[in-house]
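Researcher: I'd like a candidate sequence for this fold, 194 residues long. If you have to choose between options at a position, lean toward the conservative one.
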C-alpha cells in the first residue's frame, strides 16, 4: 500500500500544477484528516481550521516531498501536529479533553490512522469494481440496520432463498478484485513495516 502507484501519480500531477490531481488528493485524504482530528477530540469548527492548515502546508511542501508514496503518512502526522498545536493554543483559554491515550507515541497514532484510511480506500475501490447488482445487494445488507430479506427480495426481484447464495458470490467477487487481492497478498506484517 505504501507504494500505491495512484498516490505517486496524483502527487506528481499535482506538483505539475494539475488542478484535477490536487482535487483528487484532497478528496482522497480529507477523510484521513477528519479521522485524525476526531481522534484528537476536536469539534467541527476546529476540524475545519486544522484541515485548512494541513492543505496549506501540503501546498507549501508538495514540491519538496521526496517520497510521493509517503504522502498519507505525511498528511496524518501533519494533521496530528496541527491538532496538538490548536489544542495547546486553545487550552490557555478553555479546558480541553486530551486524547484518551496520551502516552501513545505520535508516530504510532499517525501510522494507525494511515493504515485504517488506506484499508477503507482499498475497500471502496474494490466495491466500485463490483457489478451494480452486487453493490446494491451488499449495500442493503450492510446498512444499519440491514434491510429485511423480504425488502431485498422485492427490490432486487429475486426469491428470498437466493439472497444468501448471491451474497456469498458477491463477497467472493469482492475478495477477488485486484485491490483486495493485493491487500491480502501483502499480509498484516507488510502493511505495518516502514
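Model: Candidate sequence:
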Amino acid at each position: 500500500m505504501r507504494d500505491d502507484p495512484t498516490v505517486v501519480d496524483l502527487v506528481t500531477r499535482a506538483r505539475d500544477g494539475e488542478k484535477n490531481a490536487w482535487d483528487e488528493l484532497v478528496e482522497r485524504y480529507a477523510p484521513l484528516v477528519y479521522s485524525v482530528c476526531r481522534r484528537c477530540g476536536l469539534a467541527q469548527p476546529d476540524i475545519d481550521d486544522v484541515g485548512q492548515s494541513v492543505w496549506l502546508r501540503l501546498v507549501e511542501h508538495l514540491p519538496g516531498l521526496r517520497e510521493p508514496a509517503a504522502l498519507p503518512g505525511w498528511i496524518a502526522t501533519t494533521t496530528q501536529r496541527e491538532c496538538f498545536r490548536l489544542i495547546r493554543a486553545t487550552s490557555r483559554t478553555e479546558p480541553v479533553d486530551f486524547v484518551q491515550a496520551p502516552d501513545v507515541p505520535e508516530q504510532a497514532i499517525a501510522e494507525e490512522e494511515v493504515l485504517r484510511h488506506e484499508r477503507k480506500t482499498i475497500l471502496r475501490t474494490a466495491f466500485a469494481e463490483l457489478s451494480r447488482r452486487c453493490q446494491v445487494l451488499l449495500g442493503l445488507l450492510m446498512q444499519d440496520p440491514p434491510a429485511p430479506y423480504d425488502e431485498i427480495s422485492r427490490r432486487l426481484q429475486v426469491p428470498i432463498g437466493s439472497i444468501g447464495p448471491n451474497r456469498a458470490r458477491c463477497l467472493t467477487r469482492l475478495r477477488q478484485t485486484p485491490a483486495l487481492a493485493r491487500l491480502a497478498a501483502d499480509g498484516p506484517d507488510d502493511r505495518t513495516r516502514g
